[in-house]
Design brief:
6 strands; FMN_Rdtase-like_dom; single chain; alpha/beta; about 35% helix; about 210 residues; oxidoreductase activity; Flavoprotein-like_sf
C-alpha cells in the first residue's frame, strides 16, 4: 500500500515561512508521530501564497489557491492550524475554509465531493481563550464539505489569559494535556485514513447532482 500523505495548512499571520510559528511548532509534535508511523507530511504556509478572497476553486488573475488544492487532492489527511486572535481563528483560516468550500462542488470518479475519503483535524495555539471556538468552526466546516472527522482531533495549547509567552516560549510541548491531544489527533487520523483507504465511503446516497 502507498504511504499515507498528510498536509498541514498553517494559517499563521506571520508573513514568511522564515518567521518561527507557534502553530508550526505544535504541528511538529504531530509530525513526529506521523514520521514514526511512516506517514509522509508536508506543510504549506498560507501566507506565502497569493490567495484572493472568494468562494471558488480558481479565481484566476494570479490566484495561487489551485496549487494548494492540488496538494489537498493528493492528501489523505488535512490538518488546518491556526493561531487565536481576539478569541477567533485567524483571518487566513477563514479564507482557507472559504476557498475549500469553493472547491466542494468538484467530484471524484464516483461523483462524490473531492474531499470524501479524506480525514480532517485541527491544531490551535494562542495565549488567550478561544481554542475550542476556533476548532469548532474549522472542524464543522471540514465535515460539512465532505471530510471525515475522527474523535479528538483538536490539539491545542493556550497559555494564560492576556499578553504572555506563546507555545514555543512557554515550552508548551511539555504540557501533558496538549501532548495527549497531539497523540489522539495523530493516531486517530492515521487509523481512520487507513480505514477509508481499505473501505471508501460508498457512492450510494453520496453522489453530487
Amino acid at each position: 500500500m502507498a504511504k499515507l500523505k498528510a498536509l498541514f495548512l498553517n494559517t499563521s499571520l506571520k508573513q514568511t515561512s522564515g518567521e518561527p510559528s507557534n502553530t508550526d511548532a505544535l504541528y511538529n509534535e504531530v509530525k513526529h508521530i506521523y514520521e514514526h508511523e511512516d506517514v509522509v507530511s508536508e506543510t504549506v504556509r498560507i501566507a506565502d501564497y497569493n490567495i484572493p478572497v472568494g468562494i471558488s476553486d480558481d479565481l484566476g488573475n494570479g490566484d495561487e489557491w489551485p496549487l494548494i488544492l492540488e496538494k489537498i487532492k493528493e492528501a489523505d489527511i488535512v490538518i488546518i492550524g491556526t493561531p487565536i486572535w481576539l478569541g477567533e481563528k485567524s483571518s487566513l483560516a477563514t479564507v482557507t475554509m472559504e476557498r475549500l468550500y469553493g472547491g466542494s462542488g468538484l467530484t471524484n470518479e464516483k461523483g462524490q465531493s473531492i474531499y470524501y475519503n479524506k480525514v480532517g483535524g485541527v491544531v490551535v495555539t494562542g495565549n488567550e481563550d478561544g481554542a475550542k471556538n476556533a476548532a469548532t468552526s474549522l472542524i464543522f466546516g471540514l465535515s460539512h464539505i465532505g471530510f471525515t472527522i475522527p474523535p479528538n482531533v483538536d490539539a491545542y495549547w493556550v497559555g494564560e489569559a492576556g499578553p504572555g509567552p506563546s507555545f514555543m516560549e512557554a515550552d508548551g510541548k511539555e504540557n501533558e494535556f496538549t501532548q495527549n491531544h497531539v497523540q489522539m489527533l495523530a493516531y486517530n487520523t492515521i487509523h481512520i485514513a487507513k480505514m477509508l483507504k481499505d473501505n471508501p465511503i460508498p457512492a450510494e446516497g453520496n453522489v453530487m447532482e
